[in-house]
Amino acid sequence: MSAGFSVIGIDELRPLLNRSRVLAAIRQALIWQAEGNVQSPLPGQLLFDKPHGDCHIKFGHVAGSRTFAIKVAVSNPERRLFTGMTATVLLPPPPSKRGWLASLLGSGS
Hints:
By secondary structure, the chain is α+β, with helices and mostly antiparallel strands. The protein has a single domain (10-93), classed as 2-Layer Sandwich (ornithine cyclodeaminase, domain 1), CATH 3.30.1780.10. Helices cover 24% and strands 34% of the residues. It contains 3 helices and 5 strands, in the order ααβββββα. It has helices at 10-13, 19-34, 100-105; strands at 38-39, 44-48, 53-62, 68-76, 81-91. Strands 1, 2, 3, 4 and 5 form a 5-stranded antiparallel beta sheet that branches. The chain is globular and about 40 Å long.
């Protein structure tokens, strides 16, 4: 695992959550959204027949924030996994005006 990257499971996360701080963060996010300071396109969705379920992807960025978020969730109602597996990743915006992938691969564009 690289420095600065960590995976936090639900058992580690629960003790860190404080109800009033979570509600304050949600309130602030809704204010930023209402003020037009949030980029949050429509979610992407994949639907599956066999096994029945879906995968949806949501992402967003608050103007001026040092990170943006991507959330991927998978559900399978037949297995009673309505929010079965979820991963949220926080990433920094691209380091330059070049595209993120071009910067990552070091290609000159």
